[in-house]
Amino acid sequence: MIKLTRVQSEKQNAPKLFIIAGGPGLSSNTLRELDLLKRSFELVYVDIQGTNGSVYAGKKSFSEIASALTDMITKESGEKFSLGHSFGGFLAADLLIQEAVSGLVCISTPFSQASLSAANDNYNFYKTAALINAENEWSKNQDDSSFAKWLSEYGLLYFNSPKGKEILVSDKVSSSFFKDNRSDVLDKEALLLKLAQSGERKIFIAGKEDKLLPVSILEKDSMTGKFDFSQIEDASHFVTIDQPVMVAKIIESKLLKG
Q1: Alpha-carbon Rg of the chain, whole angstroms?
Q2: In this structure, what DSSP letter does residue 25 have?
Q3: pTM of this prediction?
Q4: Buried b or exposed e, range 51-66, using 16+ CB within 10 angstroms
Q5: Other residues' Cβ atoms within 10 Å of the Cβ of residue 12
Q6: What tens digit of pLDDT does each residue of 69-127 get?
């Protein structure tokens, strides 16, 4: 159900950074712009439930997936941090709450009902003809290919860089993971209250030009969870695709300080 892909660090005895993709249903390949962080961390990319060649183990709830991931990472040695993009931020956050890691990075993660409502409104407002066609194709076929195509047509809702469309359309997605777990994004606001009680390092990064999740709402979410918040210029929802160098600098300066 869970596949780990390791990228060796250029640094001796480097802490481990477990990197979890969004979706649900996107693979870790959507975050590989973060490979440059191997200069500071041992990178461990996490693929779940059919993404990027991981085994699809039948329908699993968020709690089942989170528990399996916690068990796996708890067994890892050394200093450990978690990073999650969008939906992946929920799993990364749970790892901190369960004390499997000692620091957390959330990127463009919609914890609150306000952020989810904004995402729905913005999706409909910025919907292009190409996105409508791709959405219809996904509704008809419900397979991995149409799922990847649909997400790749999000355009400015997802990324400013034209590279984003290429990355998503060729991603090794799991449409089954998406269908089984998409409703799990609806009840994650309670995670923020639990995170607020943690004294560990917590970083929230958002794109200033995120057209899916307004940065103002994400900042409010981060304040509730008592994160150290950063917004990045010229970046939309996939901040790591639009501005990977800036993302890496923020992570290194704030997660490794002291």
Answers
A1: 17
A2: T
A3: 0.97
A4: bbebeeeeebebeebb
A5: 5
A6: 999 999 999 999 999 999 999 999 999 999 999 999 999 999 999 999 999 999 999 99
